[in-house]
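SUBJECT: protein chain
CONTENTS: sequence, structure tokens:
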Amino acid sequence: MHSVTWTATAFRQVYDRHIPDWRLDSSSLRYALGIPLEEVRQAHQVAKLELIEWGRLGSGLALSHSCSKLHPMARPLRIEFPSVLYHVMSDGNGPTAICLGHWHGEVFLNPDTLDASTGYP
């Protein structure tokens, strides 16, 4: 990873003051733990405001500078039509299976086949 490319300007300035070689050796960023917390907070606030402004300019939306957290953007909602069957895909969470058995797809298509007491067909 090229740290300089992905580091906000405010944090570049902080790192330049505290970790002079960070641009040449990204592993030296492990010393960022020694940067005073208040300085990190100030750089974070500046970077956040720059990100909000960048989003405002790119989207034309008025974004709030007072928000305490930026949340990941959700996927856009799909356009839905009555009586349409949608193919839902998921990779699961890590290498775990997302289907519990061959009957899982059948339940998706016919949820009334579930036993109310067990949750299984």
